[in-house]
Amino acid sequence: EAVGFVTGRAGNFLRSIEEQWKTLMFFCEVDGSSGRRNKTYEKLAIFGSVRGRRGAELLVLSAVETKVPGYYSKIRDDVVNRDKNKDESGTWGTDTMTFQDDELSYALGKQGGTRKKLERSSGAIVQYVGHVA
């Protein structure tokens, strides 16, 4: 259900994420037994730097969460702990914060402006997946 949404028309959404985060992404077969995709869930392979992979992953998860609310909460621990300390300095990690409705709209800002300012000023990846930043 969310695969088409994440892929976008003619793959445009996926390609725009690849360009933004300098990654290569594609959906791959999970069981390999058939020539068609598993409709229960899809595995998305993301190649690139640790930072690029995480930025792309969070953007995809944000899109999936709008289509399948509650999905992120099921995999949150896996996402947060993935690639921990795997950068050159050994300090890579992910912190999260959960927002209430009124806080979320303030934190996003007009057309995501506040989110973008937070990213630029902190050097961190700031993405909202549901009510979690």
TrEMBL record:
Name recorded for this polypeptide: K Homology domain-containing protein
